[in-house]
Amino acid sequence: MTEEAPLYDGSSERRAPADQATVRRTNLGLVLRHLRDHGPRSRARIAQETGLNKATVSSLVAELAERRLVSAGEVDRAGSVGRPGLIVHLDGRCVCGIGVELNVDYVAVLVLDLRGEVLFERRHALDIPSLGAEETLDAVARAVTEAVAAAAVVGARPAGVTVAVAGLVRSVDGVVTLAPNIGWRDVAVLDGLRSRLDVDCPIRVENDANLLAIAEWAMGSEARTPDLVYLTGEVGVGGGVIVAGRLLRGAGGLSGEVGHTSLGDPDVVCGCGRRGCWETVVGLAALLRAAADHGDPVRDPGRDLETRLAEVARRAEAGDERTLGALRQVGTSLGTGAAVLINLFNPRVVLLGGYFAVLGRFLMEPLLAELESRVLGPGMAGARVVLSRLGFTAAVRGGAHVALESVFDDPTLVPEPVLDPAGATAP
Amino acid sequence: MTEEAPLYDGSSERRAPADQATVRRTNLGLVLRHLRDHGPRSRARIAQETGLNKATVSSLVAELAERRLVSAGEVDRAGSVGRPGLIVHLDGRCVCGIGVELNVDYVAVLVLDLRGEVLFERRHALDIPSLGAEETLDAVARAVTEAVAAAAVVGARPAGVTVAVAGLVRSVDGVVTLAPNIGWRDVAVLDGLRSRLDVDCPIRVENDANLLAIAEWAMGSEARTPDLVYLTGEVGVGGGVIVAGRLLRGAGGLSGEVGHTSLGDPDVVCGCGRRGCWETVVGLAALLRAAADHGDPVRDPGRDLETRLAEVARRAEAGDERTLGALRQVGTSLGTGAAVLINLFNPRVVLLGGYFAVLGRFLMEPLLAELESRVLGPGMAGARVVLSRLGFTAAVRGGAHVALESVFDDPTLVPEPVLDPAGATAP
Fold first, then answer.
1. What is the location of CATH 3.30.420.40 in chain B?
2. Average model confidence (pLDDT) for chain A?
3. Interface residue A243 vs chain B (CB under 8 A)
4. Is residue A7 less than 8 Å (CB to CB) from chain B?
5. Chain A residues with beta carbon closer than 8 angstroms to that of B214
6. Contact A262/B346, CB-based, under 8 Å?
7. Is the ipTM of this complex over 0.90?
8. Does the pLDDT value for residue B421 go beyond 70?
9. CATH 1.10.10.10 region(s) of chain B?
10. Distance between CA atoms of residues A33 and A39, nearest Å
11. Residue B256: closest CA among chain A residues belongs to which residue?
């Protein structure tokens, strides 16, 4: 009998027949990811660690070098008995991923090279609710064009552009179905950007919480946790879920909508028009309403959010009863909803982002108490609650990462340079 | 630009290097599943439809025939131009899958051959709450041994045994953490059966709703719907979720616990000791309490459930106001919870099983009204609600299917028969 029976995943009939080209692509990706995850090393060591044979590794590395995804540098003398080998490392310069975040009052762009180094970063202040969709998309297209040009200066071509939007995004066709905080409904962001942009790479549009979850998965403190639930607290509350190492998308890319589940106060009307949505008790507005009177600067949306949250934290630290009471109340309600997510998804980690992360130290105690009492599995079903440390650029980082990941999945997406008769490399 | 950008799944780094043995196994499985899904056909047609070349298909079919998973029968003359080929078909006789269901008052066993035909079926009445875990496992082991013997009579060896339990099952190690309806806590079902059974195949222990979801996925009216939520209404309420064609398991196999999410009446105490669990408003007890007084035969747990549900349906059809009111109330509450699941998972289909299916025609109207108002995505985010038609043997069918699926995934799990010197096939 087998100690650990292979778990059924019901997906077997979807596999394509394996052929030599598929095997080659798989192994090119394997070597490239191995270098990313474990750092520069010799061909011999790659062979030893991946189980591929040495001749295969040499041929794979040669192809990756032709595509300018790796280069071979100094000689490896560490512990070598035979002929010393050259160290192969990721060459991040020729390809980049572009992440864009479209939020209430700004558009942010970040360009990462294949090694994850920042090539370009820009934040444009923009009043999106007043601008409207068409002018906003014009601005986004200009911002992306600027980023592409900046990357081209150092020789990097985009492998993809990923746009994060806080709202209900039908990622299969890139339509923002509903984004109450910017007043959008059924905006075809993907088509709008395609018609405005002259780039030869995939463009994706994605819910911001999904990209935040991916950023955590790729580069957060709990990176590579295969079962992970991410909750971000802002005006609204968003959720992104990683299931068995994959982003949960659902049939139309509309999954993870936790903010409007009926876990709130049935007497309170939400921004979406419904009653009892969870974000009416755990969103930023709910906290600030409970913590301060109308007219209090922490409730002034015209002021900088980070400053207002710092003031809330200051009051809590000073022992202000009203502030502490409001935080306890939000912490408990956060626990009620997080317990539902733990019961449904059985994650290893629940990550809290947005204002939940900033004020997390005051939310944690009531939150954990509620989880202990509401989660069915013993010991909170093995879940830990962790505050995100990625901060406010996480969405664009997640977006850039998604764009780059396609190259790590299939390095042949990056074309081999065409040589002109004089032997110079064409652009 | 690509019309449909490949969706990021974050799982790339887990892939093993592809080698010839892997390719062979993949392609053996591909041919076997092709025959299962599309019926008997010639080698030439398999080659044409799968994209594998003809010589490869011939060699794969020869190996599958040696493992006695396929056989070649009559000549294919349909539309053939060249030499007519023999028709290859699944030969289900040598391998079987065993599904077991362990419920409050019975143990059921079902054996399916590779073609999905029933080889053996038995239901043993058993008062599990009074028997206790050890004696119950003795009885389960006897039932499985009987099934294995029955399969052996026709020459079939088990590819696996899957045991369904209504409760919180940690499928990674086969421990039933909590099963309130049979009074179990931390029962090591997998270890208990391994020590009692003399079978040389994997044994799995699984939450019953997970197996019901798999049964629907494999053989229900909505088979192969990649994003599917299954809800079963019994004494408790269980959930099984298929995400992108895979069963959602979570970190410890504890996912899908919908019954105890806090979507119920906070004043009602649940069987688990908590307040406000969803099953306190949508479980069978909630319906019957609302529909009939204490002492009414429909509330008598000693009577057959199907008879009691038929009586409830009769009263509803006769226009009994109290019964109709109870059904409306349950339908609405079912909608509240189903809306949460649709918001989180964005499934294509929500399948209702157990008593929800039997009385579904009376629940549907209030349920859909609640979904329309609570689901954030327009048009219920594209989800349909469907009543299961698999009936009461679905859990054992799902279990047997899981066991067989491992063979379709990797046909080399079935050994090639060893020939003795006289040329006869050893057992």
1. 94-212+394-410, 221-389
2. 89
3. yes
4. yes
5. 8, 10
6. no
7. no
8. no
9. 20-90
10. 9
11. A344
